[in-house]
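Can anyone check this?
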Amino acid sequence: MTPVDVAVAGGGLIGLSVAWRAAQRGLSVTVVDDAPGSGASRAAAGMLAPVSEAGYGEEALLRLCLASLERYPAFLDELAAATGVRVPLRTAGTLVVGFDDDDMRVLADLQRFHVELGLEVHRLLGREVRRREPSLSPRVRGALHVAGDLSVDPRELHPVLLAAAEGAGVRLVRSRVAGVLGEDGRACGLALDGGGEVRAATVVLALGPQSGGLAGTPPVPVRPVKGQILRLRGARGLLEGTVRALVRGRSVYLVPSGDDGLVVGATVEERGFDATVTAGGVHDLLHDAIELVPGVTELELAETLTRWRPGTPDNAPVLGASGLPGLVLATGHHRNGVLLTPLTGELVAELIVSGEPPALAAPFALDRFGRGST
Protein backbone atom coordinates (compact mmCIF):
# COMPACT_ATOMS: atom_id res chain seq x y z
CA MET A 1 0.00 0.00 0.00
CA THR A 2 1.05 3.60 -0.55
CA PRO A 3 2.34 5.07 2.74
CA VAL A 4 -0.07 7.41 4.53
CA ASP A 5 0.27 10.19 7.06
CA VAL A 6 -1.68 8.37 9.78
CA ALA A 7 -2.54 4.71 10.40
CA VAL A 8 -5.15 4.12 13.10
CA ALA A 9 -5.27 0.73 14.79
CA GLY A 10 -8.92 0.27 15.74
CA GLY A 11 -12.18 1.22 14.05
CA GLY A 12 -14.38 1.77 17.08
CA LEU A 13 -15.82 5.16 17.96
CA ILE A 14 -12.51 6.47 19.32
CA GLY A 15 -10.43 5.33 16.34
CA LEU A 16 -12.93 6.67 13.81
CA SER A 17 -13.17 10.01 15.59
CA VAL A 18 -9.38 10.40 15.48
CA ALA A 19 -9.31 9.36 11.81
CA TRP A 20 -12.10 11.77 10.83
CA ARG A 21 -10.53 14.76 12.57
CA ALA A 22 -7.09 13.96 11.15
CA ALA A 23 -8.51 13.70 7.62
CA GLN A 24 -10.27 17.03 8.06
CA ARG A 25 -6.83 18.54 8.75
CA GLY A 26 -5.64 17.40 5.36
CA LEU A 27 -3.85 14.21 6.40
CA SER A 28 -4.12 10.90 4.54
CA VAL A 29 -5.52 8.32 6.97
CA THR A 30 -6.03 4.55 6.99
CA VAL A 31 -7.98 2.73 9.70
CA VAL A 32 -7.28 -0.96 10.28
CA ASP A 33 -9.94 -3.13 11.95
CA ASP A 34 -11.24 -6.57 11.05
CA ALA A 35 -14.73 -5.87 12.46
CA PRO A 36 -15.27 -2.13 13.05
CA GLY A 37 -18.02 -1.35 15.51
CA SER A 38 -18.25 -4.86 16.94
CA GLY A 39 -16.32 -4.19 20.15
CA ALA A 40 -17.29 -2.01 23.09
CA SER A 41 -19.16 0.30 20.71
CA ARG A 42 -21.57 -2.56 20.01
CA ALA A 43 -22.45 -3.14 23.65
CA ALA A 44 -22.30 0.29 25.27
CA ALA A 45 -25.53 1.84 26.56
CA GLY A 46 -24.43 5.28 25.36
CA MET A 47 -24.73 7.23 28.61
CA LEU A 48 -23.20 10.70 28.33
CA ALA A 49 -23.23 11.16 32.07
CA PRO A 50 -20.10 12.77 33.52
CA VAL A 51 -21.99 14.26 36.47
CA SER A 52 -23.87 11.16 37.66
CA GLU A 53 -20.70 9.07 37.17
CA ALA A 54 -18.34 11.54 38.85
CA GLY A 55 -16.12 9.75 41.35
CA TYR A 56 -14.05 10.91 44.29
CA GLY A 57 -10.48 11.65 43.20
CA GLU A 58 -11.42 11.74 39.51
CA GLU A 59 -11.75 15.51 39.15
CA ALA A 60 -9.37 15.73 36.15
CA LEU A 61 -11.35 13.01 34.37
CA LEU A 62 -14.58 14.85 35.19
CA ARG A 63 -13.27 18.03 33.54
CA LEU A 64 -12.32 16.05 30.44
CA CYS A 65 -15.74 14.39 30.29
CA LEU A 66 -17.61 17.66 30.79
CA ALA A 67 -15.61 19.25 27.96
CA SER A 68 -16.55 16.37 25.65
CA LEU A 69 -20.22 16.46 26.70
CA GLU A 70 -20.32 20.16 25.82
CA ARG A 71 -19.15 19.29 22.29
CA TYR A 72 -21.71 16.55 21.64
CA PRO A 73 -24.58 18.56 20.10
CA ALA A 74 -22.23 20.29 17.64
CA PHE A 75 -20.49 16.97 16.96
CA LEU A 76 -23.78 15.35 15.95
CA ASP A 77 -24.74 18.42 13.91
CA GLU A 78 -21.46 18.13 12.00
CA LEU A 79 -22.02 14.43 11.37
CA ALA A 80 -25.52 15.15 10.08
CA ALA A 81 -24.16 17.82 7.72
CA ALA A 82 -21.50 15.40 6.45
CA THR A 83 -23.73 12.35 5.98
CA GLY A 84 -27.34 13.50 5.88
CA VAL A 85 -28.14 11.23 8.84
CA ARG A 86 -29.20 12.67 12.18
CA VAL A 87 -28.22 10.60 15.25
CA PRO A 88 -30.81 11.27 17.99
CA LEU A 89 -29.62 12.73 21.29
CA ARG A 90 -31.75 11.88 24.32
CA THR A 91 -31.93 14.85 26.70
CA ALA A 92 -34.15 13.67 29.58
CA GLY A 93 -31.24 13.46 32.03
CA THR A 94 -30.45 10.84 34.67
CA LEU A 95 -32.18 9.83 37.89
CA VAL A 96 -29.94 8.29 40.56
CA VAL A 97 -32.45 6.65 42.90
CA GLY A 98 -32.42 5.25 46.42
CA PHE A 99 -34.62 2.68 48.18
CA ASP A 100 -33.83 2.93 51.90
CA ASP A 101 -32.20 5.09 54.57
CA ASP A 102 -28.70 3.90 53.68
CA ASP A 103 -29.30 4.78 50.02
CA MET A 104 -30.59 8.22 50.95
CA ARG A 105 -27.47 8.91 53.01
CA VAL A 106 -25.33 7.90 50.03
CA LEU A 107 -27.33 10.22 47.79
CA ALA A 108 -26.93 13.07 50.26
CA ASP A 109 -23.15 12.54 50.32
CA LEU A 110 -23.12 12.38 46.53
CA GLN A 111 -25.07 15.62 46.27
CA ARG A 112 -22.63 17.37 48.62
CA PHE A 113 -19.74 16.15 46.47
CA HIS A 114 -21.44 17.44 43.33
CA VAL A 115 -22.12 20.82 44.93
CA GLU A 116 -18.46 21.09 45.98
CA LEU A 117 -17.50 20.57 42.34
CA GLY A 118 -19.99 23.18 41.17
CA LEU A 119 -22.20 20.63 39.40
CA GLU A 120 -25.95 21.07 38.99
CA VAL A 121 -27.88 18.30 40.73
CA HIS A 122 -31.41 18.42 42.18
CA ARG A 123 -32.76 16.32 45.07
CA LEU A 124 -36.21 14.79 44.53
CA LEU A 125 -38.57 13.12 47.00
CA GLY A 126 -40.25 9.83 46.19
CA ARG A 127 -43.47 11.45 44.92
CA GLU A 128 -41.50 13.80 42.68
CA VAL A 129 -39.41 10.92 41.34
CA ARG A 130 -42.45 8.89 40.32
CA ARG A 131 -44.08 11.96 38.79
CA ARG A 132 -41.05 12.19 36.52
CA GLU A 133 -40.80 8.43 35.88
CA PRO A 134 -44.15 6.78 36.76
CA SER A 135 -42.90 3.25 36.02
CA LEU A 136 -40.43 3.30 38.93
CA SER A 137 -41.11 1.06 41.92
CA PRO A 138 -43.20 2.64 44.69
CA ARG A 139 -40.37 1.59 47.02
CA VAL A 140 -38.14 4.33 45.62
CA ARG A 141 -37.60 6.86 48.45
CA GLY A 142 -35.90 9.62 46.53
CA ALA A 143 -33.39 10.48 43.84
CA LEU A 144 -30.90 12.93 42.44
CA HIS A 145 -31.89 14.37 39.10
CA VAL A 146 -29.02 15.27 36.78
CA ALA A 147 -30.73 17.25 34.03
CA GLY A 148 -27.53 17.81 32.05
CA ASP A 149 -26.81 14.14 31.41
CA LEU A 150 -27.53 12.93 27.88
CA SER A 151 -27.48 9.61 26.03
CA VAL A 152 -26.96 8.42 22.47
CA ASP A 153 -27.22 4.99 20.85
CA PRO A 154 -23.67 3.90 19.87
CA ARG A 155 -25.13 1.43 17.36
CA GLU A 156 -26.64 4.36 15.51
CA LEU A 157 -23.61 6.61 15.99
CA HIS A 158 -20.91 4.24 14.73
CA PRO A 159 -22.07 3.74 11.11
CA VAL A 160 -22.68 7.48 10.73
CA LEU A 161 -19.20 8.32 12.04
CA LEU A 162 -17.72 5.69 9.71
CA ALA A 163 -19.57 7.22 6.75
CA ALA A 164 -18.32 10.70 7.68
CA ALA A 165 -14.75 9.46 7.98
CA GLU A 166 -14.86 7.69 4.62
CA GLY A 167 -16.47 10.75 3.09
CA ALA A 168 -13.49 12.78 4.31
CA GLY A 169 -11.10 10.38 2.55
CA VAL A 170 -10.33 7.87 5.31
CA ARG A 171 -9.59 4.39 4.00
CA LEU A 172 -10.77 1.34 5.96
CA VAL A 173 -8.73 -1.85 5.79
CA ARG A 174 -10.66 -4.82 7.19
CA SER A 175 -7.89 -6.84 8.78
CA ARG A 176 -6.75 -7.74 12.28
CA VAL A 177 -3.84 -5.66 13.55
CA ALA A 178 -0.94 -8.02 14.26
CA GLY A 179 1.45 -5.40 15.62
CA VAL A 180 3.17 -2.06 15.18
CA LEU A 181 6.01 -1.86 12.66
CA GLY A 182 9.27 -0.29 13.79
CA GLU A 183 12.19 1.20 11.89
CA ASP A 184 15.16 3.27 13.08
CA GLY A 185 13.75 3.43 16.61
CA ARG A 186 10.29 4.71 15.69
CA ALA A 187 6.88 3.39 14.70
CA CYS A 188 6.42 3.34 10.94
CA GLY A 189 3.13 1.51 10.37
CA LEU A 190 0.94 -1.45 11.20
CA ALA A 191 1.53 -5.14 10.53
CA LEU A 192 -1.60 -6.93 9.37
CA ASP A 193 -2.73 -10.45 10.10
CA GLY A 194 -1.66 -12.60 7.16
CA GLY A 195 1.45 -10.62 6.30
CA GLY A 196 0.32 -7.30 4.86
CA GLU A 197 1.26 -3.91 6.25
CA VAL A 198 0.22 -0.25 6.26
CA ARG A 199 3.13 2.19 6.31
CA ALA A 200 2.54 5.54 8.01
CA ALA A 201 4.38 8.53 9.41
CA THR A 202 2.26 8.34 12.59
CA VAL A 203 0.51 5.36 14.14
CA VAL A 204 -2.44 5.79 16.53
CA LEU A 205 -3.22 2.95 18.92
CA ALA A 206 -6.99 2.92 19.52
CA LEU A 207 -7.69 -0.78 20.01
CA GLY A 208 -9.53 -0.43 23.30
CA PRO A 209 -8.93 -3.43 25.59
CA GLN A 210 -6.64 -5.03 22.98
CA SER A 211 -4.22 -2.08 23.27
CA GLY A 212 -2.19 -3.68 26.06
CA GLY A 213 0.54 -6.06 24.91
CA LEU A 214 0.30 -5.46 21.16
CA ALA A 215 3.49 -6.59 19.41
CA GLY A 216 5.95 -3.78 18.76
CA THR A 217 4.57 -1.36 21.36
CA PRO A 218 5.95 -0.25 24.72
CA PRO A 219 3.99 -1.39 27.81
CA VAL A 220 0.53 0.21 27.90
CA PRO A 221 -1.39 -0.41 31.17
CA VAL A 222 -4.74 -1.25 29.59
CA ARG A 223 -6.66 -4.38 30.57
CA PRO A 224 -10.06 -5.85 29.65
CA VAL A 225 -12.82 -5.31 32.23
CA LYS A 226 -15.67 -7.65 31.39
CA GLY A 227 -19.24 -6.42 31.30
CA GLN A 228 -22.41 -8.41 30.65
CA ILE A 229 -25.22 -6.35 29.12
CA LEU A 230 -28.86 -7.01 28.29
CA ARG A 231 -31.02 -5.46 25.58
CA LEU A 232 -34.78 -5.62 26.03
CA ARG A 233 -37.56 -4.87 23.55
CA GLY A 234 -41.09 -3.54 23.99
CA ALA A 235 -40.18 -0.66 26.34
CA ARG A 236 -41.90 2.16 24.45
CA GLY A 237 -42.99 4.77 26.99
CA LEU A 238 -41.58 2.85 29.97
CA LEU A 239 -38.81 5.33 30.79
CA GLU A 240 -38.09 8.81 29.54
CA GLY A 241 -34.46 9.05 30.66
CA THR A 242 -31.65 7.04 32.22
CA VAL A 243 -32.19 5.54 35.67
CA ARG A 244 -29.36 4.36 37.90
CA ALA A 245 -29.48 2.67 41.29
CA LEU A 246 -27.60 0.58 43.80
CA VAL A 247 -29.57 -2.63 44.51
CA ARG A 248 -28.15 -4.78 47.32
CA GLY A 249 -24.73 -3.32 46.71
CA ARG A 250 -24.83 -3.87 42.93
CA SER A 251 -24.91 -0.95 40.54
CA VAL A 252 -27.49 -1.16 37.75
CA TYR A 253 -28.56 1.25 35.03
CA LEU A 254 -31.48 1.30 32.61
CA VAL A 255 -31.10 3.36 29.44
CA PRO A 256 -33.88 3.83 26.85
CA SER A 257 -32.69 3.01 23.33
CA GLY A 258 -34.43 3.79 20.05
CA ASP A 259 -38.22 3.68 19.89
CA ASP A 260 -38.86 0.71 22.17
CA GLY A 261 -35.52 -0.62 23.40
CA LEU A 262 -34.02 -0.68 26.88
CA VAL A 263 -30.40 -1.42 27.76
CA VAL A 264 -29.71 -2.93 31.19
CA GLY A 265 -26.16 -3.08 32.44
CA ALA A 266 -23.67 -3.92 33.40
CA THR A 267 -21.60 -6.37 35.39
CA VAL A 268 -17.99 -5.46 36.23
CA GLU A 269 -15.72 -8.52 36.18
CA GLU A 270 -11.95 -8.92 36.16
CA ARG A 271 -11.90 -12.06 34.02
CA GLY A 272 -9.72 -11.10 31.08
CA PHE A 273 -11.20 -11.73 27.64
CA ASP A 274 -13.82 -14.19 28.92
CA ALA A 275 -16.79 -13.88 26.53
CA THR A 276 -19.19 -16.06 28.53
CA VAL A 277 -22.67 -14.76 29.22
CA THR A 278 -23.47 -16.36 32.56
CA ALA A 279 -26.80 -17.33 34.09
CA GLY A 280 -25.81 -15.49 37.25
CA GLY A 281 -24.96 -12.30 35.39
CA VAL A 282 -28.25 -12.28 33.49
CA HIS A 283 -30.18 -13.13 36.67
CA ASP A 284 -28.61 -10.32 38.68
CA LEU A 285 -29.18 -7.69 35.99
CA LEU A 286 -32.81 -8.70 35.43
CA HIS A 287 -33.52 -9.02 39.14
CA ASP A 288 -32.14 -5.57 39.90
CA ALA A 289 -33.85 -3.99 36.88
CA ILE A 290 -37.23 -5.44 37.95
CA GLU A 291 -36.71 -4.18 41.52
CA LEU A 292 -36.21 -0.73 40.03
CA VAL A 293 -38.87 -0.85 37.28
CA PRO A 294 -41.40 -3.69 37.82
CA GLY A 295 -42.68 -3.35 34.25
CA VAL A 296 -39.42 -4.84 32.99
CA THR A 297 -40.99 -8.27 33.61
CA GLU A 298 -43.22 -7.75 30.56
CA LEU A 299 -40.41 -6.94 28.13
CA GLU A 300 -38.81 -9.25 25.60
CA LEU A 301 -35.22 -10.29 26.34
CA ALA A 302 -33.85 -9.51 22.90
CA GLU A 303 -30.10 -9.86 23.37
CA THR A 304 -27.46 -10.83 25.91
CA LEU A 305 -23.85 -10.02 25.21
CA THR A 306 -20.42 -9.54 26.70
CA ARG A 307 -17.80 -6.96 25.86
CA TRP A 308 -14.72 -5.53 27.55
CA ARG A 309 -14.08 -2.02 28.78
CA PRO A 310 -10.48 -0.84 28.28
CA GLY A 311 -9.52 -0.30 31.92
CA THR A 312 -6.49 1.52 33.32
CA PRO A 313 -5.14 1.72 36.90
CA ASP A 314 -6.93 5.04 37.50
CA ASN A 315 -9.99 4.49 35.23
CA ALA A 316 -8.90 7.37 32.97
CA PRO A 317 -7.80 7.24 29.32
CA VAL A 318 -4.26 7.25 28.02
CA LEU A 319 -3.83 10.05 25.49
CA GLY A 320 -0.67 11.20 23.73
CA ALA A 321 2.90 10.04 23.38
CA SER A 322 3.75 6.39 23.98
CA GLY A 323 7.50 6.58 24.54
CA LEU A 324 8.03 5.18 21.04
CA PRO A 325 8.44 8.01 18.50
CA GLY A 326 5.71 7.95 15.90
CA LEU A 327 3.24 6.03 18.10
CA VAL A 328 0.35 7.97 19.67
CA LEU A 329 -2.06 6.50 22.22
CA ALA A 330 -5.84 6.99 22.26
CA THR A 331 -7.04 4.18 24.50
CA GLY A 332 -8.02 3.16 28.04
CA HIS A 333 -11.34 5.05 28.07
CA HIS A 334 -12.95 2.46 30.38
CA ARG A 335 -16.63 3.40 30.85
CA ASN A 336 -16.34 6.75 29.06
CA GLY A 337 -15.52 5.76 25.49
CA VAL A 338 -18.78 6.96 23.93
CA LEU A 339 -18.78 10.15 25.99
CA LEU A 340 -15.17 11.02 25.13
CA THR A 341 -15.46 10.30 21.40
CA PRO A 342 -15.79 13.93 20.19
CA LEU A 343 -13.01 15.35 22.35
CA THR A 344 -10.55 12.49 21.91
CA GLY A 345 -10.68 12.90 18.13
CA GLU A 346 -9.95 16.63 18.43
CA LEU A 347 -7.12 16.27 20.94
CA VAL A 348 -5.29 13.45 19.18
CA ALA A 349 -5.61 15.05 15.74
CA GLU A 350 -4.26 18.31 17.17
CA LEU A 351 -1.32 16.45 18.71
CA ILE A 352 -0.52 14.73 15.41
CA VAL A 353 -0.55 18.00 13.48
CA SER A 354 1.19 20.25 16.02
CA GLY A 355 3.44 17.76 17.79
CA GLU A 356 2.42 19.28 21.12
CA PRO A 357 -0.01 17.70 23.60
CA PRO A 358 -3.12 19.88 24.09
CA ALA A 359 -3.61 21.15 27.63
CA LEU A 360 -6.76 19.06 28.19
CA ALA A 361 -4.83 15.89 27.32
CA ALA A 362 -1.80 16.60 29.51
CA PRO A 363 -3.14 14.94 32.72
CA PHE A 364 -3.75 11.71 30.78
CA ALA A 365 -0.26 11.10 29.44
CA LEU A 366 1.20 7.60 29.78
CA ASP A 367 4.05 8.81 32.00
CA ARG A 368 1.62 9.46 34.88
CA PHE A 369 1.88 5.76 35.72
CA GLY A 370 5.67 5.84 36.10
CA ARG A 371 8.36 3.86 34.38
CA GLY A 372 7.68 0.18 33.87
CA SER A 373 3.89 0.32 34.39
CA THR A 374 2.02 -2.58 32.78
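Reply from J.R.: I decoded it. The domain at 91-150+224-311 is CATH 3.30.9.10 (D-Amino Acid Oxidase; Chain A, domain 2).
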